[in-house]
Amino acid sequence: MRSRSERIGEAFAQQAAAYEEQAWLQPRVAERLLADLPDQGPRRILEIGCGTGFLSRLLAQRYPEAELTLTDISGGMLERCQEQMPASDRIRYQQLDVAHWKPKRAYDLIVSTMVMQWLDEPIQALIALQQSLHPGGQLFYSRLAPDAFPEWRQGLKQLGLPSGLLDRDGAPGLYRTEDILHSYPSSLAFLQELKHLGTHSPRPGYPGLSAGELRRACRETDRISGGNITWRIQYGRLSAYVCDL
Questions:
Q1: Which has the higher per-residue pLDDT, 138 or 206?
Q2: Which one of 46, 84, 120, 132 has the largest count of C-beta atoms within 10 Å of its C-beta?
Q3: pLDDT digits (tens, 9 = 90+) for 15-65
Q4: DSSP secondary structure string, 54-76?
Q5: Looking at the structure, do residues 85 and 157 belong to the same domain, yes or no?
Q6: Range 154-179 average pLDDT
Q7: 58 and 161 share one domain
Q8: Do 88 and 48 have their domain in common?
Q9: Contact partners, residue 72, CB within 8 Å, separation at least 6
Q10: DSSP three-state, residue 145
Q11: Model's pTM, two decimal places?
């Protein structure tokens, strides 16, 4: 049986060709995260979940002297990223599942945008990455908040229907939460966007909705929100461990 991480990687790979054109949120969050990064140029940077390269391209421009290691669970995403940023002495690529990987090198800066919400044990992954920072290094990440899409959640609750959305509490180092309200023609259009972006993998054990339940949930959410859905994003920062001898 395929692991959940493998299923998520396959879902993103299936959407890699159209991801760049359809993803409106990822560039915005990438720019927001970039603005928080240190001005002093790091020498070695690791990106977890580079996707098609929204943040990767910004990092290459912001830190022209840095060595970049760009990683993703999806080979298809890495291929798309390499089309715009070919591998070189300065830029290297690696396909990996961060949930089951520990860096063998140390980094001055580790960044990850919109990845941690898909992990079963995000805190464990963040701690492993934090331990791979050089002294003085920092880790910055963004993720979907556990209460993202409150309009859809409320629509399901009103009807007594289960939610398949992931709820990952307990992220360390959080310093900002941002609400991004996006208008859709309908709640169904919102769900279709989740699927097109590869971000529709439900929580484990979710029984799913019947076609009739889905229609009812969409109608109720449209009644509540008028097609407006809130993408709630959290931003976190961790510093390298300091050992007192």
A1: 138
A2: 46
A3: 555 666 667 899 999 999 999 999 888 999 999 999 999 999 999 999 999
A4: HHHHHHHHH-TTSEEEEEES-HH
A5: no
A6: 90
A7: no
A8: yes
A9: 12, 49, 50, 51, 78, 81, 95, 96
A10: coil
A11: 0.89
